From TrEMBL:
The chain crosses the membrane at residues 6-28, 40-65, 71-93, 105-127, 133-154. Signal peptide: none annotated. The keyword Transmembrane applies. This is Membrane protein. Keywords: Membrane, Transmembrane, Transmembrane helix. GO terms for cellular component: membrane. InterPro entries: ECF_substrate-spec-like. Gene3D superfamilies: 1.10.1760.20.
Length: 167
């Protein structure tokens, strides 16, 4: 895929992820954070674009969501955590056999949950870090489930992007 086309797709998926996340944002007062649908966009980008696209959509959308939602203290952590989450997911989503896709969901989700627990503990306190775990696990389960439905729908309509990806 040409670089220009890939950059446009990354920008579009980032914008879609930010908008989707800001439309459905659920504050969590215990951690001074929130739960969103960001994982749907991040995991979808990993499926469609592989690890590099997953990284950039995760990193950019994670940082922008925090900026626009009024949580600037999380921008750097979200950039790194969601970027790595998208890269790990994208790496495993490229692999065959298909059961490795499940490994990608699990490892990327663990990276996100543990990353935010550590970041929350560093920014606030360790009890807040522990309190963040439940919400982030739920966010990842819901996001992975929706991503599976989105990818199944994209495959049914035979979206050309699926043929152009790094698979």
């Amino acid at each position: 895929m040409k670089l220009q086309k890939q950059l446009v797709i990354i920008a579009m998926l980032t914008a879609l992820t930010v908008v989707l996340s800001l439309l459905f944002i659920f504050p969590v007062p215990a951690t001074n954070g929130f739960v969103t649908l960001a994982e749907v966009g991040i995991y979808s980008a990993g499926f469609l674009l592989g690890p590099l696209g997953g990284f950039w959509v995760g990193a950019l959308s994670g940082g922008l969501i925090d900026l626009f939602a009024g949580y600037p203290q999380w921008i750097v952590a979200s950039f790194l955590i969601h970027g790595l989450q998208g890269a790990v997911a994208g790496y495993f989503f490229q692999k065959n056999p298909k059961w490795l896709h499940g490994v990608g969901f699990v490892l990327a989700s663990l990276l996100m949950v543990i990353g935010y627990a550590i970041a929350t503990a560093l920014i606030y306190t360790w009890p807040a870090g522990v309190a963040s775990i439940f919400g982030n696990v739920i966010q990842n389960i819901f996001g992975a489930s929706l991503t599976i439905l989105v990818m199944a729908s994209i495959r049914k309509i035979n979206l050309p992007l699926m043929k152009e990806g790094p698979r």
